[in-house]
Amino acid sequence: MGLYESIKQVLDIVFALCLTILLSPILILITIIIKLDSSGPVLFRQKRIGKDYSEFYILKFRTMRTDTPKDMPTHLFQNPESFITKSGGFLRKSSLDELPQLFNILRGQMSFIGPRPALWNQYDLIQARRDQQGKYGFDANSVKPGITGWAQVNGRDELPIDVKADLDGYYAANIGISLDIKILFLTVGSVLTKKGISEGGPKV
Predict the structure, then answer these.
(1) DSSP alpha helices (H): ranges in the chain?
(2) pTM above 0.85, yes or no
(3) How confident is the model at residue 76 (pLDDT cuts 50, 70, 90)?
(4) Most buried residue, 53, 66, 88, 160, by most Cβ within 10 Å?
(5) What b-and-e string marks burial along 36-60, b requiring 16 or more CB atoms within 10 Å of the CB?
(6) Which tens digits make up the pLDDT trace of 147-193?
């Protein structure tokens, strides 16, 4: 692990702890809204691939009905909107459903910035990232995943797998403070404009 990555790991934990405390009223409010909106747990847990192919359970606020197919990437759903709850639509578009990942950061499983963690059975994305070693010399699967990343600010849901993997490979090969700051500012813009959000993946 390089010097910057070591510093980044410490900053991740410090900022995640501060944000968890600061945003606790919002976390409680969202919890109440979800419970009033539909039956089921408040949090959604899903097995994902972490740094160096390790497995962990990502946390999100639940935005879909409990009868939604498990472990299926959203872009493979025929009609994903039919599974989304009333509050879930707003949470997903505003990215507030990602807030519980602050706890993943505190556990050392994720970073604020990095490639989005692939589903454990999303073999096409995992392999596509591995294939980028030939181009960039780095496997994005060996990098700690993030809440946001280079692919997310360059298309997000609208990106096909090969393009997303290429952007992830670029990030893995160019990790640094300047790129992370750029991603951070672009993320704020993407969230405010809801840019790149497309339920069901790229429209082709």
Answers:
(1) 3-22, 24-37, 86-94, 101-106, 123-131, 133-136, 161-173, 177-193
(2) yes
(3) low
(4) 88
(5) eeeebeeebeeebbbbeeeebebbb
(6) 999 999 998 777 899 999 999 999 999 999 999 999 999 999 888 77
Residue 197: count of CB within 10 angstroms of its CB: 15
CA 60 to chain centre: 9
First to last CA, the chain: 39
Q: State the Cα–Cα distance between residues 45 and 58, nearest whole angstrom.
A: 6
State how beta strands 111-113 and 146-148 pair: parallel
Say how far apart CA 130 and CA 119 lie, in whole Å.
15
CB contact at 8 A, 165 and 129: yes
pLDDT tens-digit profile of 87-103? 999 999 888 999 999 99
Name the helix (H) or strand (E) containing 45: strand 43-49
Within 10 angstroms of residue 204's Cβ, the number of other Cβ atoms is 5
Q: Beta strand pairing status for 43-49 and 55-61?
A: antiparallel
